[in-house]
Amino acid sequence: MRIRRPGRLVVALAAVPLALLVAQEAQQPLFRVKVDMVVLTFTVTDSRGRYINGLQPGEFRILEDGIPQRISTFSEGNRPALQVLPDGQTRPIVPPAETAGLEPVPAAADALVGTNVFILFDTSNYMYRGFVYASDAIADFVRGLDRADSVAVYTFSRNLSRTAPLTTDRGEAIVGLRKAVAGDDSALYNAMLLTLRDAAKIPGRKVLIVFSNGPDNASMIAPDDVRAVAEDEGIPIYVISTNEVNRDPVSSAVFQRVTNRTGGKAYFARTWQRQVEAFENIREDLGNAYTVTYYPAPNPNEGFRRITVEITSDAGKRYRVRARPGYRPRPAS
Amino acid sequence: MRLMRVVLGLALWITLGLAQDAASEARRLEAAGDAAGAEGVLRAAASAPGASLEALTAHAEFLDARGNPEAGAAYDRLLSAEGLPGSRAQRAAAARRLVLLSLETGDVAAASRYLQRYRELGGTDWPKAALSPPAPEAAAWTIDIPGPFESFRRMAAISEDASPETVLTSLARNVVTSGYQAGAGKEGLVQTEYLKLLIRYLSQARELTKLSGPDRHIRIEACESIQAGDLLRTLGYRMRGACGTEVVLETVNATRAFLTIDSGFPLADLEQALRLNRPFVLDYRPTRIPAAWDPASLLGPRERQPVDLLDALLADPTLSRLYLGLSKPDPETAAELRRAIPLERLRAFAHVLDFFGGMFEIRGGRAVVPGGARAERMWEEMVGAPPREGVRFFDRLISRDDGWMAGYFDALARLDGAVLNYLTEPERMRRFYLAIRGRVTSPGPARPVFQSNTDMLLLTTRLRLDPDGRPHIPGGLEVWKALFAEERAGRVDERLARSARNWRDPDDLVEALFALCRRIVDNDPLRSFLALSDLNRNRQRPLEPSTVDRLATAYRRYGAQFPVFAEAPALGDGTMVQFLETAERLSAIRNLDVQADAVGVMQALVGLWQILCRQGTIPAAEADTALAGILSLFKETRSAADVFVAGRSGVAALLRAAGGKGESQPQERLISLLSGGDRAAPSGFQEQAAAELRGHFEAQRLIPLNLLFDVAAHAERAARGEKPDTALAGRLASRLADIDSPRSLLTSAERNAFQSGYWPDRHIESQRRVNVRSLMERAGQDPGRLRDLQGGLAPMLRDSLVGLNYAYYAPPGGQLLRSNSSFVRSHDFIGMPGSRETWRTPAPVSSGWPAGAGGRLVGSLAGLPYALAQAEQNFLIPTREQALIWGDLVPQLIQSAKVPRWWGVTPAQMHWVGLHLRLASSLLAEAALDAGRRAQVLEALSRQAAPARVHRIARLLERGEALRAAEAILPSESFFLARQLAGQAAESGHMLAARIRLMPAEAPEQLDYPAISRAFGTPKPTLAGSYKPELLHLRTFPALMGYSSRILAESWESSTLYWAALADELHLPPGQLNLAVPEWTKLAIERIFASHLEDWPAVLQSLRYVGDDLRRQRRQQAAALQNASIELAGREQQ
Q1: Does B875 touch chain A (CB under 8 A)?
Q2: Cβ separation of A182 and B851 shorter than 8 Å?
Q3: How far is A315 from chain B (nearest CA, A)?
Q4: pLDDT in tens, B613-659
Q5: Are B776 and B729 within 8 A, CB to CB?
Q6: What is the pLDDT of residue B15?
Q7: Among B1071, B1064, B1085, B1118, residue whose Cα is nearest residue B908
Q8: DSSP B12-45
Q9: Which of B148, B403, B986, B1132 would disulfide-bridge B352, Cβ 3.0–4.6 Å?
Q10: Which of B754, B815, B877 sits opposite A250 (nearest CB)?
Q11: How many Å is the maximal CA-CA distance in chain A?
Q12: How far is CA B160 from CA A181, B269, B702, B874, B881, in A?
């Protein structure tokens, strides 16, 4: 069997690896082409921070290093993803068998419905005092997630623990959460990395929500290594810190940079009420985010590729787009 | 696929009518390593219509020898084969084997049935055996723990695998080690948070018990009931929202809520029941667990009423220590001590009993003492009571000199053979005791949290005797006299230095070494002696006196490098001295960047040499020449260009030593050699191992050696007038551009404001700044500038060579190497100014520093496998909610899985190990039936296991519980047991033992114990001064001060033996071990749930979990294949 690789275009990206069998003319050989897709999630807000909804795929221009990209699928909030045809029209995603002659779409169309939410709960000594309140706040958040979302609850102190694997069953996730055991040292960034690695194996849209007091005294990984993985895998990181922003300036600064660079956000919520509010904001973010997928256009850059999301309408010039700034493609294997 | 081929091949084979040759064909296949094929052939022959007795027997015995659980069914078929000529004797043998197999699986009823059949068929063995299912062991005393057992174990940090009878001992241990701490000022001991939480939990559990009603079930019938309110109040929660789907539980009392969550109360289930308005029922009956002692007999009069034992243990650490101490000797001994020694006196010396009581043994009223009858008189003199008065003897022993005497007794009792004989010669025994005891006895070795007689245990374990029975003194006594007198091997006290001048006998030195065992830090003279003694252990020629002198003098600075010398027994003395001289020369390079590169390149080359020697890739005879050759390249190294030239030549020298002839692809050649190279027949496993190495190398964005050498070679040609190759320069430049600088998310200003410290990016930045094209052009224009280019390449060469070492030892999972692309480049060979890390054992630093660029290793490359495992261990993901994975044992387990390689191991060697472990299991089953066999088994075990465990195994065997007895024995002990008893068992006709005896005839060089030790041993850098895998058959060590559980972990030799037997059972080729063992080890570690530092049964249990999983997967695969082949056959028929 011959392997056709379209030059440098075959890049393993931060997304859903998709093996497609492209049937050629009956008498021609069958080529197996490995194409990787970029999943890009972003929010659009006006100058007062209010979400802008109802934009259509044609109103966006996605660029990678300035090179325009053709959007393959489009979805808003937790609505089902739509396939974007070459003429800009949209249609519901149909199973692959019915797509002969059309653009390739993900084999599992439902992979783009809803968000896979990975919650990482700090159970180290640093969280000792706020442990039970944090548990309550997380439970509330899990209960309030959109029905289409899946959720996994992980905890960490020195090591990571997969307390509740990814599930759509809220009860199962809460049972896992309520079994969390208080630990000792904190290896926050190690745990974030391992959670991202797990999340990267799941197709579709995903986010990582970290609930932590902030300090880390055991990680061998630097925050920037975590940022790089999240950026490359297209996983926004949200952090809810139970500390005040000024109490631990190092962690505060790191949280803000990591979340900004990955398209997420950091909240500093010392009280239980503020934590609930932070979760509410995240839920809103998830419900108001746009998700597009595309297959990268030819680009010789194998290093960091800068992503730009533009809104083509005049009104859009005043809007603010929050998205990850780019990614670094993995080398083709 | 392989099984499918076997199936199809078999069909053909059967049709050809070759049934007569089944056994010989199976033997041929087995010898060729195709155990699955052999099994298929025998299975087909045994399944053929009218199969002969021989075919049935061969099949059953094959399965039996491979540990296949289907062996029982195969023997059953043989047992049913009535009417075949000569069948009675073979059927009787089958019945006999079935008796044992049934006992091994714990099926006493089946064993009894087969025993009956065996006797009916004329079997005469075990005439007195009568098998009946054992009655449950009734505990003489019990206590009740309020609430669910699981919750209590969670709160008390006791493994969920811990059996009820061990729970109180584990609790007592946790109270002693983690329950109290020194308070501020005059507070004395205060409770730790662990203990406070546990006490609060018990209080909450008692409140909940009151809510549970007479049947001890908590029942909430409806959301709005009073009971619901009471329960929630006790739990620290309240309802938010009206009853029904809106209800949510939220914290109202954080202290109580914490206990509720931490103890695993099913809060989510309660919430769900309230939301759905369904009844909530929770079994809240107390858990009754056995107590080793009558609680009343342990409690003082003041405590006896109304406090129960549980509360008393928590409230009083001395009582916990007593409970723990009494659990150490075997129950008979402990009972005698408890009976005869007043409670308060026992409490006062409970710490001594706890640390050193494990080897105490009273038999028939007499104390069993090290050295036996010959030493009894001296023990009486030293202790002040005769061993014949067992209780009085131990009473005096524990109360002498704050535990030094007891520690000495313990160290000697662990020994066996000639060293024991030497050390227990009466006069010598007293002399050495006085040395260790010293003038000031306090603090004793049992006072700290860990026992502090570490060096005494190491000395007695590592002391070697020469053939004349005298202690082996490396280099001879005169050398050590001078070393001690002149204090050149490290500081000793003045009196010792003076006395050294008068030493006349090796015993004088040993006495001094015992005296040094008291020192906790700065004990270089003792440690250098042990290191050099270890070095001599495997050498073909002992070290020369002058070399010993040189090495001992250099120990303080270079001692961490000595295990390198142990890799090659033929290493010349001159080469070792050359190593030290090279190290000294490189350490003197003033420019620290050049020094770090020079040291890094040299150590990396030595590291690769070490690996290739260990793998056998560099023949033993070439090892010395190869290392000397590499070291000589650094003779004139002063500049960066010199470093590059030496490194490049060093790679060539290594490859030549490994049999290469002018390699044009050094990178690929090295990777091939590191992944088995010429040691194994080409296989997919080698390719996978090589791909793994390349993956790590690429993840670190290191520059392949070929590219570096090509660039250098081209520049040299350009210097001679050739045109510069811009494409080559471009390739290197593009790789350099790919190097990540260690980044922080913080700005420099923030970093400066938040943290201060070393920022290890100079070495990396220097590489990023190299302009290869310009350097090449300049070299072309001015040959004198060629050295600039070579100097520019030196840091890259260092990283590539260091990276190959890292990649080789990368722990399973390898998250650090995958995720932190500057990890290798950040290796710090220099350390902080004045810290002299260059030749020390490496260690991870900078962890938990968010303002930094991640952790890195600082130090030399000697000890790299352990340091990498240390750095990686927090990336393991325990499968239990609460897994007590501890810091020193896990890195050693990982190291033991990564240092040895099994490219040269044969299927026969794996099978031989498997046979040993299976024979041990079978002997234990036989010991449950036969008192004679039991005595042999227990005698052999007593040389490995502590008296308390031997006692327990004896009781279990007497009760016919062979399975539980086997579960209490380590694989390494099983191997030892089978080794000891194989001869006797073979003589009595045991099939497995007969195979063990016969197999070596076919491959004598592979199938002897030294060869198995090399193949399936573990590295012991701390315990034996060498990374060379070997089996030492030592008793499992306790956790020791200064080493925590590291020495315990090094004495753990069971994992590899267990994996080898498992691979044999699953018919895996030996080459697969190279990939599978690290992965299996990782899985096993992730399943460890230990209650304390010395909880090796938890490690054993996790090995078994993984083994059971793999067996299950294998059975599922086999069943799926079988179904597929049936389906395929069906389709073909259609």
Answers
A1: yes
A2: no
A3: 34
A4: 999 999 999 999 999 999 999 999 999 999 999 999 999 999 999 98
A5: yes
A6: 38
A7: B1064
A8: HHHHTT-GGGHHHHHHHHHHTT-HHHHHHHHHHH
A9: B403
A10: B754
A11: 70
A12: 14, 21, 45, 22, 10
**Dihedral of the CA atoms B991, B993, B998, B999 (nearest 10)?**
100
* Whole-angstrom distance, CA of residue B261 vs CA of residue B251: 11
**Strand extents, DSSP E, B153-212:** 180-182, 189-191
Chain A residue with minimal CA distance to B817? A221
The more confident residue out of B683 and B558 is B558
How confident is the model over A135-178, as pLDDT tens digits? Answer: 999 999 999 888 888 999 999 999 999 999 999 999 999 999 99
The secondary structure of residue B876, as a DSSP letter, is -
Higher pLDDT, B413 or A115: B413
Q: At residue A244, does pLDDT exceed 70? A: yes
Please report, as a single letter, which amino acid is at residue B362: I
Residue B1128 is predicted with a pLDDT of 79
CA–CA distance, B363 with B937 (Å, rounded to integer): 18
Give yes or no for B883 touching A (CB within 8 A). yes
Quick check: A284 and A276 in contact, CB under 8 A? no
Residues in A closer than 8 angstroms to B821, CB to CB, are 225
Cβ of residue B877 closer than 8 Å to a chain A Cβ: yes
Selected residue of B248, B251, B697, B745 to mutate for chain A interface (largest A Cβ count, 10 A): B745
Does B745 contact A217 at a Cβ distance shorter than 8 Å? no
- Name every chain A residue with its beta carbon within 8 A of the beta carbon of B263: none
Q: What angle do CA B486, B491, B492 make, to 5 degrees?
A: 85
Among candidate residues B382, B473, B391, B365, the one with its CA nearest the CA of residue B427 = B382
Distance from CA of B816 to the nearest CA of A (A): 7
The amino acid sitting at B1035 is R
ipTM for the complex shown:
0.89
Q: Is B487 exposed, middle or buried (0-12, 13-18, 19+ CB in 10 A)?
A: middle
- Spell out the alpha helix ranges (H) of B400-518: 404-413, 417-423, 426-437, 454-462, 477-485, 494-500, 506-516
The pTM for the full model equals 0.90
Find the residue in B nearest to A155 (Cα): B881
The DSSP H or E segment spanning B809 is: helix B786-809
Q: Is B1042 exposed, middle or buried (0-12, 13-18, 19+ CB in 10 A)?
A: middle
Bridge partners of residue A321, in order along the sequence: A44
Given B258, B745, B851, which is nearest A131 (Cβ)?
A: B258
Q: Comparing B473 with A86, which gets the higher pLDDT? A: B473
Nearest CA in chain B to A132: B258
Determine the residue among B259, B261, B267 to mutate to test chain A binding: the one whose Cβ has the most chain A Cβ atoms within 10 Å. B261
Summarize pLDDT for B736-775 with one digit per residue, the tens: 887 766 555 666 666 655 554 444 578 888 888 888 888 8
| Candidate from A133, A221, A258 with C-beta closest to B854 | A221
A166 CA: distance to closest CA in chain B (Å): 15
- Do the chains contact at A132 and B881, CB–CB below 8 Å? no
**In the structure encoding, which two tokens stand for residue B336, read together?**
């005698």
B694 closest CA partner among B597, B808, B828:
B808
> Which of B 465-504 lie inside 8 A of A, CB atoms?
none
CA distances from B662 to B619, B649, B656 (A): 18, 11, 7
Query: A57 vs chain B: nearest CA distance in angstroms?
Result: 34
Percent of chain B with pLDDT over 70: 95
- Mean pLDDT value across residues B958-982: 96
- Mutate which of B822, B877, B880, B1088 to test chain A, going by most A C-beta atoms within 10 A? B877
Which residue, B504, B558, B568, is CA-closest to B535?
B568
